[in-house]
Amino acid sequence: MDEVFKALADPTRRSLLDELFKEDGQTLSMLQGRLPMTRFGVMKHLKQLEEAGLVVSKKRGREKLHFLNAVPIRLIHDRWVSKYAAPWAAALSGLKHELENRTMEKVYEIYIKTTPEKLWHAITDTGMRRKWNFGAEVISDWKPGSRIEGSGGDTLIFEGTVLEIDPPHRLVQSFTALWGEDVKSEGTSRVTWEITQVRDSCRLVVTHDRLPEGANTQLYGGWPMALSGIKTLLETGEILTTPGSLRWLEGHQDQMPGVR
After folding, report:
1. Are 78 and 228 in contact (CB under 8 A)?
2. Rounded to an integer, what distance in angstroms lies between the CA atom of residue 145 and that of residue 211?
3. What is the pLDDT of residue 245?
4. In degrees rounded to 5, what are phi and psi of residue 213?
5. Which domains does the chain have, with CATH numbers?
């Protein structure tokens, strides 16, 4: 967390984050064109932002795209801001990026002190998933081509299909939101989970892509809070009582051991 504060202390690095907030997935040349400094200077600042986890870069052919990663900011929020004071991830969910075929892509990264096997279990086990995924019950046999269902009580809130699976390192699934008419019309997107062991911890990268241009922020705005929840659960055994979680947990404490 010290690295995050150090990275945010510099006004130039904050400006870079502002530019990625306005338009996610920019190249080095695009960012350099928006700031009065050399290419080397921008590279140096981007490196510090990546080391702090605030920026994630991904290769696209010959280009290297940079994405704002809201998760570290969400973790700061969860530590010092009242759990009941702000709408869930409202300040972090307005990122926009237009890729080919008029789609958007969102990338989130977090480091969790756990093993790949335990992290995979938290993602695919119904009971564990419910504790950090806003109380939703996610069911699948996690085989290629299998159906994934997420429900809240008796209501189906999302569905998908397992597109690729390589336990405990990679899962690719389709995602269709069903919790309201405003999100049903957005169609089907894709979520990729990638787990890499880093010494005694795991790097988890979640990429939510094939989102329609200008997609409803409900589709992807909850990722920072959800990933904060999975980190807290695996590292402390506690369940975050954030507003998003309480939407599903309220009235179901008897079904959720450990909720206070």
Report:
1. yes
2. 21
3. 56
4. -55, 130
5. 1-68 (1.10.10.10), 70-255 (3.30.530.20)
